[in-house]
Structures are given as C-alpha cells and as structure tokens.
C-alpha cells in the first residue's frame, strides 16, 4: 500500500509552494531598499535642584547652586487658550511664573523653559468651602494619591521651581484637618522629589493659621501669602505671628475689590491703570524688596487677563494682548530701566463731570458727556475705544471663575481727544463704562466708571 507521504498530489503541492516562496524571495531582492529614518530617543528630563538655605538668619533660595530671587507673575491658561505673555515676562526681567493647578502644567513648564523661566506649580488641593470634607478619610487618602500622580509626572522637569500645595485653603474653612492633609502631601513630595521645596498659599495672614502650619505642617519648607492692600504689614505680621522661616509673596498687587470704597449701590470703585502702577512701585520697594532676610521674592497678580469683578481689575494685559502701565512698572522695578516704548498714562475719567466716588445716577435714554485725560510719555497718538457693560452680578471668592458680562453696543459715541457721549440704557440698574486708550504700539491705559440708571 502506498505511503501517504509519497502521494503524487501532495508532491505536486509541495513543489508549487516551494516555487512560490522562491519567487517571492527573488522579487524582494530586486526591490529598492528605502532607508528608514532613525527613531529619535525621547528627551530625558533632568531636574534642576532647588533648595532653601539659611545663613545668620537670612534665607535664600538656591537653584543649581546659584542664588535665586523670584521676580515673577501669577499666570494661568483659560479655556485651553495658548501660552501668552511669557516672552514679555522674560523681556521685562521676570524669571518665574506661578500656577494654580496642574491642568496645563506640561504646556506651561515647556513654555517657561523656552523663555528661561521657572514655575511654581500649584497643586489644586480641594477646598472645604467648595464642599470637600476633611473628616472623610477615604476622600483625603484618594486626594493624596492623585497629588502623588501629578508630582511624579512633573518632578523632573527642568523648569520646575517648587510646589504650591493648595491655594487659600484657609478661606471660609472650619476644619483644621486640612493642614494635616497639606503636611501629608508635603511629606509625600519630599519622598518622591528631593529636588524641590514645598509651600502652601494663604489668603492674608492670621495668627491661628500661622500656628496651625507651624504645628501641623512641619514638612512645609516655606510660607506663602496672598496680600493686596494689607501687603505693607506682611514683614511685621510674619514675625509677630511667630513664623521663624522664609516666606514668599505668592500673590500681590494694587487694592482688591474687597478693599476699596464703594458707590451707594455697592459697586467697588476700581483704580485706573496709572494708580495701579503707582501702587506696585510703593509696595514692591517698601515691602517686598525691603525684607531681604525672609522674603524670597514675589508673583504679581495677574500676568495675563481674567474676568474678576471686571475684565481689567487684576489684569496687566487686555484681552487683545495690550500691556498696561503696570507692565512697564514691573520692568522698571525688576531691571531698573523703563521699556523703550511706554504705555499711555490716564489721569482721570469723568461722567457728566463726576468722578466714580461721586455716585453717578443717570436717567434712561438721556445723553451724558464723558471725558478722560490721557498723556503719552512718547507723544504717540492715542486712540480711544469704549465698552459698556452691566455691573457684574457674580458673587465669588478666592478667584473662582466668573462669566464676563455681555457688552451693550450702540450707546457710546466717541468724540475727539478723549471725549465721548453716553446714552444711558433704558433698563434700570448698575453699569460700568470702560475706556481703553491705546498708543498703536500694543500699550494701553484703562479706566472705568460705575453708574446707575434710575427711573
């Protein structure tokens, strides 16, 4: 009986497959060999060591073994917007930015590195006033693990300066266990990242919070304070309340909306851009730079633009990217020299001959004269644009996000040389008229006038 291995049909199939394979190999040998590009190895991030040193009662940050004094701006992205203003920060003599969360940390760190800047990266620790319960041990443990994951992502980035563990956790809170959680996060950071200090940012300075941080947060390396009108008190308060270490002014500027006079209808009166810049100069020279023993530097708020009570209150830039006089002032304070082209200076704004504190009541549909006086250090021609907004009704705290009021068109007629005419809205209520005086070279002066339509 014939063996199955000697079946004629099988032998024929074997020969066919051998022939097919051979032809494929020969065909492959005749193809042109296209060299493949070499795969680039991923860039390996190398941490730059930052440490806090003390000598004879004087504290100093060192970065890469060199003294490092922070000349920075508070900075964040909104709604996925692109990185802006960092080139101008570097050009003005700034060296660092502070952020409030890790949401855009990769983009912010990479961009900072591009311009030779560092970043104090904020860790968005949950706040009691927004519903977090620090008695919930499971939630606290979960938050610690989430913070650990974020630290591990960015700890080796060469632009990282330090970690800011939470922002204003002392605002509207009752449970001191939050400070235990802050200490646990700081301990965790020191375990996984030996190269960067830790801090936490307080809203103003009170003795109970300083005591809590001293006793319940020993892993914190330095204290950070957010202060505006009360900033001149900071050096004395730090010492009077028993803080023995270094501190950072993590947020500062002109008077905030909770610190200024109000109109009769409770609208806060905003300073114009010239008045804000003058406040920067006094507070920087007499407070921040005047405490070289303890103060490690500062972050002015805000190196960018945001809506908070108004679109201009804390904004050093307009939404169009125009720089105010405050930007010029920070360059002078950081470098000792003014920019080649300086922003216009706004002296005053009047509605029907009244200043903001004189309570401007107007009648619906009636027309009223508006006057602003602006000068330009470089004698540039000034262009004026006007914007009418309803008074913001947002009731927020701690810098929570606000919706910008919608502009009301068609009620302001621009005249010449800082003159305009306002036709009062028909609907009773509170409003603000804004002026933006531009020099055509991306510099601007700003002011606004609150008024009330009364039937």
Automatic annotation (TrEMBL):
UniProt keyword Calcium present: no
Pfam families: Glyco_hydro_2_C
PROSITE patterns in the cross-refs: PROKAR_LIPOPROTEIN
Keyword rRNA processing: no
Superkingdom per UniProt: Bacteria
Molecular functions per Gene Ontology: hydrolase activity
Keywords: Hydrolase
Coiled coil: none
Domain Glycoside hydrolase family 2 catalytic: 134-226
Protein name: Glycoside hydrolase family 2 TIM barrel-domain containing protein
Species name: Nibrella saemangeumensis
Lineage of source species: Bacteria, Pseudomonadati, Bacteroidota, Cytophagia, Cytophagales
């Amino acid at each position: 009986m014939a063996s199955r291995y000697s079946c004629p049909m099988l032998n024929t199939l074997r020969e066919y497959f051998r022939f097919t394979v051979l032809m494929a190999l020969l065909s492959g040998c005749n193809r042109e060999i296209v060299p493949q590009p070499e795969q680039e190895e991923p860039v390996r991030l190398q941490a730059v060591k930052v440490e806090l040193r003390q000598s004879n009662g004087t504290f100093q940050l060192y970065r890469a073994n060199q003294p490092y004094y922070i000349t920075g701006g508070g900075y964040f992205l909104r709604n996925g917007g692109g990185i802006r203003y960092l080139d101008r920060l570097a050009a003005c003599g700034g060296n660092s930015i502070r952020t409030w969360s890790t949401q855009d940390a990769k983009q912010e760190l990479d961009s900072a590195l591009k311009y030779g800047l560092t970043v104090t990266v904020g860790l968005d620790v949950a706040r009691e006033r927004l519903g977090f319960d620090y008695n919930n041990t499971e939630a606290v443990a979960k938050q610690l693990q989430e913070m650990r994951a974020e630290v591990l992502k960015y700890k080796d980035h060469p632009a990282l300066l330090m970690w800011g563990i939470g922002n204003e956790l002392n605002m509207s809170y009752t449970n001191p266990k939050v400070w235990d959680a802050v200490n646990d996060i700081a301990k965790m950071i020191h375990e996984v990242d030996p190269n960067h200090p830790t801090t936490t940012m307080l809203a103003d300075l009170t003795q109970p919070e300083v005591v809590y941080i001293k006793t319940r947060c020993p892993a914190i390396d330095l204290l950070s304070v957010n202060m505006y009108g009360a900033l001149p008190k900071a050096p004395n308060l730090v010492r009077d309340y028993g803080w023995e270490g270094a501190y950072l002014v993590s947020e500062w500027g002109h008077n905030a909306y909770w610190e200024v006079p109000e109109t009769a209808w409770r609208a806060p009166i905003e300073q114009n851009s010239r008045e804000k810049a003058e406040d920067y100069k006094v507070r920087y020279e007499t407070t921040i730079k005047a405490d070289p023993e303890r103060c490690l530097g500062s972050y002015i708020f805000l190196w960018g633009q945001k809506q908070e009570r108004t679109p201009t209150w804390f904004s050093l830039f307009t939404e169009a990217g125009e720089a105010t006089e405050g930007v010029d002032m920070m360059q002078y304070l950081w470098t000792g020299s003014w920019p080649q082209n300086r922003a216009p200076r706004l002296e005053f704004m009047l509605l029907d001959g009244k200043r903001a504190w004189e309570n401007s009541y107007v009648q619906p549909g009636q027309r009223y004269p508006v006057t602003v006086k602006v000068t330009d250090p470089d004698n540039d021609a000034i262009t004026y644009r006007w914007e009418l907004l309803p008074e913001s009704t947002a009731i927020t705290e701690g810098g929570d996000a606000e919706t910008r009021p919608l502009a009301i068109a068609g009620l302001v007629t621009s005249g010449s040389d800082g003159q305009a005419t306002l036709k009062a809205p028909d609907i009773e209520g509170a409003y603000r008229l804004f002026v933006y005086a531009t020099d055509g070279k991306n510099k601007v002066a700003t002011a606004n006038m609150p008024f009330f339509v009364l039937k």
